[in-house]
Design a protein that fits this description.
CATH superfamily of chain A: Jelly Rolls
Largest sheet of chain A: 9 strands, antiparallel
Oligomer: homodimer
CATH topology of chain A: Jelly Rolls
Distance between the termini of chain A: 27 Å
Number of strands of chain A: 9
Number of helices of chain A: 0
CATH architecture of chain A: Sandwich
Helix content of chain A: under 10%
C-alpha cells in the first residue's frame, strides 16, 4: 500500500462544493505539496495556480482540459493541468485522487 | 492551523457507504493511528474494535452511542465510542472529523 512518510498533514479538510469535493493537504520536507482528495459524483470546475498532476486513485470521471475534448479517466490513470487554467470534471462514480502541485 | 508533523499517511482513501464517508489513515511514530475523514449528509452505523475519540472538526450530526439517547454534536465538539460497539450518526451537514483509535 502506497504511503507518504515523514510528512505533515493539515488536520482540517479543504472543502469545495458543499463538501462534495474534499481534500487534505500533505506537506513534504522538500517544500512540495500534494492534496489527497475525494469527489462525490457531480460536475466541478476548478482553477489552477501552479500546474497540477491529478492522479485518479479510484473511480471514473470525464475531464475537459483547456483546449481539449472531453476524455475519460479511470482509477489508475492521471492527467496534467497547466497553471493558471480552468478545468472541468464530470465525476461519474465517487473518485479518490492525489493532486501534486508542480513548480 | 492544526497539523500533524512527522507522520505517515496512506495514499489511498478508506471508503464507506459508496464514498459518502471517506477517510485517510495517519500513522504516528509512537504506533498510534488516527483517521481524518469526511461525511456527506446521511445516516451511518459503524462498528468499533478499539475505543475511539471522534472529534467533529466542522459540520453537524446527531449520534446515538450504545445505551444512550441521541445527542447533537457540532464542529468543535467530540465524543468517545467504546471498543467493540456500534454507533449510529445522522449527519445533517457535511462533516469533517478526526478519529483517534485508543488502546
Amino acid at each position: 500500500m502506497s504511503e507518504f512518510k515523514n510528512v505533515t498533514i493539515v488536520k482540517q479538510a479543504n472543502v469545495y462544493f458543499d463538501g462534495k469535493v474534499n481534500s487534505r493537504t500533505v506537506l513534504f520536507a522538500d517544500g512540495s505539496k500534494k492534496t489527497l482528495g475525494f469527489m462525490q459524483p457531480g460536475e466541478y470546475t476548478f482553477n489552477t495556480a501552479d500546474p497540477e498532476l491529478m492522479e485518479i486513485l479510484a473511480g471514473e470521471l470525464d475531464v475537459q482540459l483547456p483546449g481539449c475534448d472531453w476524455q475519460t479517466i479511470k482509477g489508475g490513470e492521471s492527467f496534467n493541468v497547466p497553471g493558471n487554467a480552468a478545468f472541468t470534471m464530470k465525476v461519474k462514480t465517487a473518485s479518490d485522487y492525489c493532486c501534486s502541485f508542480l513548480k
